[in-house]
Design goal:
homodimer, alpha+beta, Ribosomal Protein S5, domain 2, Alpha-Beta Plaits, four-stranded antiparallel sheet, 10 helices, globular, kinase (chains A, B), Homoserine kinase (chains A, B), threonine biosynthesis (chains A, B), amino-acid biosynthesis (chains A, B)
Chain lengths: ~375, ~375
Amino acid sequence: MASSLFFCRIPLQSNSNSNIFYSNSNSNSSYYYSKPIHVRCSAAVHSSKTVSVAEPEPVFNSVKAFAPATVANLGPGFDFLGCAVDGVGDFVTLRVDPDVHPGEIFISDISGAGEKLTKNPLWNCAGIAALSVMKMLHVRSVGLCLSLEKGLPLGSGLGSSAASAAAAAVAVNELFGGKLSVSELVTAGLDSESKVSGYHADNVAPAIMGGFVLIRSYDPLELIPLKFPHEKDLFFVLVNPEFEAPTKEMRAALPPEITMSHHVWNCSQAGALVASVLQGDLMGLGKALSSDKIVEPIRAPLIPGMEAVKAAALEAGAFGCTISGAGPTAVAVTDDEERGREIGERMVEAFFKAGDLKALAMVKSLDRVGARLVHSTPR
Amino acid sequence: MASSLFFCRIPLQSNSNSNIFYSNSNSNSSYYYSKPIHVRCSAAVHSSKTVSVAEPEPVFNSVKAFAPATVANLGPGFDFLGCAVDGVGDFVTLRVDPDVHPGEIFISDISGAGEKLTKNPLWNCAGIAALSVMKMLHVRSVGLCLSLEKGLPLGSGLGSSAASAAAAAVAVNELFGGKLSVSELVTAGLDSESKVSGYHADNVAPAIMGGFVLIRSYDPLELIPLKFPHEKDLFFVLVNPEFEAPTKEMRAALPPEITMSHHVWNCSQAGALVASVLQGDLMGLGKALSSDKIVEPIRAPLIPGMEAVKAAALEAGAFGCTISGAGPTAVAVTDDEERGREIGERMVEAFFKAGDLKALAMVKSLDRVGARLVHSTPR
């Protein structure tokens, strides 16, 4: 099938005019897209041959992918920085299903903490991302059946929707031979995020790429992976209280304007945070994490006990502490797992004492891999 | 003389309670200071001996120090990031002079581009920094004669006052055996800057330390050196027009408030700038340099031709371009010295055509050393 045709991939991250700005009809957002048209690849093909984009065939009968939880914002990294945490996240199983209409997705079941989620693939975060990847790959002849295992609670501030989208995007891509680039997968995930929780890549980019990721721009999409040194340990203490953070309030509470002095302060702390990650300076990282003067001071009072939880974490020896994403989960950092458990206990106590909230703590290391295939069945 | 006494240096950058916050009576600013009092050094001395701070003796008869020009702000690094440029800067020569009142400074002459500067050491940038270091060292018995060679034009946006202060601070310190730490020298330089051009360390810190420096906080003073990889070349094209940038207007024009979207944008670009420096990514560095949406769009129109100069630099192949400090100098970056000269020519032309201003271009590499002793005469 069409295998003799040229496959002409237009790089997503270049600034060249060959990038076609494509408005996605399924949402209000727009993204860069390798438009499925006949193009002349003048760089690759010196003669003036007309080339077409091929529809790939599945290389597996079924695949299972995992994508990790993520911590976005990280204090002064508000809206442009996030990182992935290992050992907790969502699984997506995908299989070729002749009973599903070609080019479409059927969501057969959702298990775990996702009972509130719709199975309509046009509105389900995994479904949207999967369909987006199918479109990018020009899959028109194969229908897919998707099963979602939610390992992450919804609305916790741990990138639940992004983990589903990332796992689904990677699953579809792997099923068809892994033809898409990382930035294309993030674009698909962003397509899902924009419909479900807002046009932000600070969860879905690290969920796909692992580690710390800086979102430099959206138009074009530019992502900077920030490599935390391999030889250093970094643990996140994640404390999730039984409290529904009012997401709309959380965003509405943010000031439309910021003073110049707060801007300069947060900007310098963001720079310090980036430097600390790259230099593996955990004390510096923690200090930067704790330093936000713009978002955290407004959001923390909306989460009962948060200020006391942060104080308890620091007192117990955490390098730093802030709100994970838009909350209500609190995140603290340390270089020692056992110390992490002690910090978690103190934070849980503080949520109970100061906020009258039950909470669960977990200690997780930095995920350096991102979304990945965990199982596959050959055709 | 007092050489048998313990010398107890209290670390300036620690957060411990042993740091004494000391208000400097010569200015409105304040700084951390190893207070000249009798203290018990419980960490260093296990017995409860009482120790005192000694007055050092000069180890040279005269010294000559150099401090480089600096580029502050660097686009989104407004007010917290700066770097040093090699081969252009100020020289300070200092000699022990029995005719000068002990504990005081006499400025004998100022040559080069400093004809407008006062010789009153209490108001001269080199004088203030020198006196500040003398105070820190508790020099009470020796008078010093200072000579200043200005290699930098005043008010050019290249850290002219900071270069004088840095050279003077390092000269005094070296004359007395180099007892002060880098952060103490920056504190002395900051003392001068606060009186002469504003309470900002983004010129004086890189002038003293070399390379790129991020000012994380002032209270306490925390500086993060950002190491640009040694194996990479980085050249600054500095184009200084014959125009007096109205410093007060330059600062007054800045908005007191910033929109959240501009804040997030600049913050992410600042993070990208830091990452680019540490990773030696010159294209990324240039792009970040050019990306400021807050300060440059307001200041550039106040410098005739600046927008055309930036466009000309980018068109000629510069990785990025912005205003150096508060201007009027424009700074562009490249990895090739010859290309840098071409870029400089195009920028000079643009200043002339679009701004009706004569301008001079120079191409300088990154200074990785900072202020240093260049000559000394033993006692």
